[in-house]
Amino acid sequence: MTIRVLVADDQEIVRTGLTIILNTQPGIDVVGSAGDGRRAVELARRLRPDVCLFHIRMPGMDGIEATRALAGPTVAEPLAVVVITTFDLDEYVYAALRAGARGFLLKEAGPDLLGQAVRAAANGDALIAPSVTTRLLKAFADTGPAAPRQQPVEPLTDREEQVLVAVARGRTNKEIGDEFHITLSTVKSHVTSLMTKLGVRNRVEVAMWAYETNRIRTRW
Q: Which CATH number goes with the domain that contains 83?
């Protein structure tokens, strides 16, 4: 199936460039574009694209606000959002993921990584630019949550704990399946069970939960 994408960026030349790049990739079709966050939210609610690709800095309503409006914790039917920016700042990354984004890329990422991020978001996975991943995970480890994370009412199984760690380390469903020698459908079932038990809505929140409950310990 074709992945329908909405692009939002305050610079017309960038919107055009992103549209051309995405439209040349097989299975991806840009169905709309916007120059500010408010217009992007309006179009997204009307068009219901598979993935929204938002720049962070936009007039009126920025990309983080627009992401929260479409994918935040109070949204009944959240859309998949990938945030793209030229600003390599940790607070932007954290805020975008907290707002519900399924991916975070820098504009220097290139066509291949851009296509991967869109496909990952459409498939329920998450892709964060490799150049910011290490700092992001270190920020989780250093600062922790504002309040203690509630433990699941129903304990995680041993396999769910393994999948939890794999998701937190950025593995895709296919990579998890290959690592543990289980089918793709089994991986999806484990991820769905994790989201239900943890009370979260997507893989990014699963990863956050893992880091904020010290499931992951990484040396720097």
A: 3.40.50.2300
CA gap 87, 63 in Å, rounded: 12
Count of CB atoms situated within 10 Å of the CB of 157: 13
Q: For each of the chain's 220 residues, which pLDDT tens digit applies?
A: 899 999 999 999 999 999 999 999 999 999 999 999 999 999 999 999 999 999 988 988 999 999 999 998 889 899 999 998 876 565 677 788 788 888 888 877 788 888 988 998 898 777 766 555 555 555 554 554 444 556 777 889 999 999 998 888 777 788 899 999 999 899 989 998 998 898 887 777 787 788 778 777 543 3
CA distance 131 to 24: 25
Q: What is the DSSP secondary structure assignment for residue 107, as one 8-state letter? A: G
Strand ranges (E), the chain = 3-8, 28-34, 51-55, 80-85, 103-106, 127-128
Token duo for residue 124 = 């329920």
* Domain final residue, candidates 118, 139, 160: 139
Residue 110 lies inside a defined structural domain of this protein: yes
